[in-house]
Amino acid sequence: MDKIQLKALAKINLGLDVLRRREDGYHDVRMIMQTVRIFDRIQLVKQEREGIRVRTNLYYLPANENNLVYKAANLLFEEFDLRGGISIDLRKYIPVAAGMAGGSSDAAAVLYGLNRMYGLGLSLEQLMERGVKIGADVPYCLMRGTALAEGIGEKLTPLPAMPPCNILVAKPGISVSTKFVYENLHANDLKPEQHPDIDAILEGLRHQDIREMAEGLKNGNVLETVTVPAYPVIQQIKDTMEEQGAAVALMSGSGPTVFGIYEDRMQARRAMSAIRKSRLAKQLFLTTPYNNNRRNS
Ligand SMILES: C[C@@](CO)(OP(=O)(O)O)[C@H](O)COP(=O)(O)OP(=O)(O)OC[C@H]1O[C@@H](n2ccc(N)nc2=O)[C@H](O)[C@@H]1O
Ligand SMILES: Nc1ncnc2c1ncn2[C@@H]1O[C@H](COP(=O)(O)OP(=O)(O)O)[C@@H](O)[C@H]1O
């Protein structure tokens, strides 16, 4: 196989709690991950000439060793002493530095794609062990679907699929770095009432009850305690989505992207128009949960 086309899917966090700051500076988390149907497209083509070449449609992203797709390819090229080179064409649609794991998902797709193209024979678990060296969310991006993530995000337990629903995703025109958010959380000083009730969300998921999940998701992301005071636009988007009939609206990951869950498609469409008119968001998507574990390549 000389060529492969991949889709790298984005995620949202259906609840995110940070338990403690660890000695190594990372944080132990407890969060529910959900893949959504927003994706980047990646094409890998084998080259005779040695080296990893990256091209992307976004001028402001690194097209060198700092791109996570480069890091993923480099990891497997070095470990398996692969011959020749590879060109990576990355078409980005997932908002960048947004809390949607775009870069991590791109890296996951490259690990998956190279494993197939070069017949490396690595299992999903073996790919995940390599993925965590690139980023805490990469193992989850390899697994996809609905999952509980613990440890730094790499300890994964599959969960019942999120019930079908409509998810409105709005990214304001600001970028927030994950590092900044974790550093400003002061996780070890959080009061018990500041921690979201992840178990309540899990119960809602087990009952396949969006309303029950939504109840648990109010204040379901502890990282909002850092970003909402710093960026009022996040709260404004949440309020607008809820005024427009969302069961709940929550920031995803380290933000600043906000998602709203709508049971009714028409209502979600109306909410999308309202957010568009408000000009609170720079990027706006109406999407659905992804739970098919078949890889699309
Ligand atoms: C917040 C979350 C929630 O899903 O997602 P995003 O907002 O990035 O999408 C993740 O925990 C982000 O995972 P990821 O973005 O892969 O993290 P990494 O690249 O490994 O680390 C970026 C920075 O975040 C901090 N970090 C990350 C994960 C973690 N459990 N504890 C941390 O303290 C690290 O100190 C690092 O400086
Ligand atoms: N393939 C990539 N896609 C997006 N960002 C990338 C990529 N490779 C490296 N980066 C860098 O990683 C940073 C955060 O990436 P991203 O995964 O989009 O954020 P988040 O983890 O918040 O979802 C960006 O600022 C960018 O410079």
UniProtKB/TrEMBL annotation:
Describe the location of the GHMP kinase N-terminal domain by residue ranges.
67-145
Note the superkingdom of the native organism. Bacteria
Among the record's GO biological process terms, what is one? Answer: terpenoid biosynthetic process
Asked if the Swiss-Prot or TrEMBL record annotates the protein with the keyword Transferase, the reply is yes
Checking InterPro entries in the record gives: GHMP_kinase_C_dom (IPR013750), GHMP_kinase_C_sf (IPR036554), GHMP_kinase_N_dom (IPR006204), IspE (IPR004424), Ribosomal_Su5_D2-typ_SF (IPR020568), Ribsml_uS5_D2-typ_fold_subgr (IPR014721)
Q: Which reaction does this enzyme catalyse, per its entry?
A: 4-CDP-2-C-methyl-D-erythritol + ATP = 4-CDP-2-C-methyl-D-erythritol 2-phosphate + ADP + H(+)
Annotated pathway: Isoprenoid biosynthesis; isopentenyl diphosphate biosynthesis via DXP pathway; isopentenyl diphosphate from 1-deoxy-D-xylulose 5-phosphate: step 3/6
Name the keywords, alphabetized.
ATP-binding, Isoprene biosynthesis, Kinase, Nucleotide-binding, Transferase
Please state what class of enzyme this protein is.
transferase
Please report the stretch or stretches of sequence annotated as the GHMP kinase C-terminal domain.
202-277
Question: Which residues of the sequence carry a binding annotation for ATP?
Answer: P95, V96, A97, A98, G99, M100, A101, G102, G103, S104, S105
Q: Where, by residue number, is the active site?
A: K11, D137
Q: Which GO terms describe its molecular function?
A: 4-(cytidine 5'-diphospho)-2-C-methyl-D-erythritol kinase activity; ATP binding
In short, the EC number is: 2.7.1.148
Is Lipoprotein set as a keyword in this record?
no
Family membership, please give it: Belongs to the GHMP kinase family. IspE subfamily.
Relate the protein's function as given in its record: Catalyzes the phosphorylation of the position 2 hydroxy group of 4-diphosphocytidyl-2C-methyl-D-erythritol.
Q: What is this protein called?
A: 4-diphosphocytidyl-2-C-methyl-D-erythritol kinase
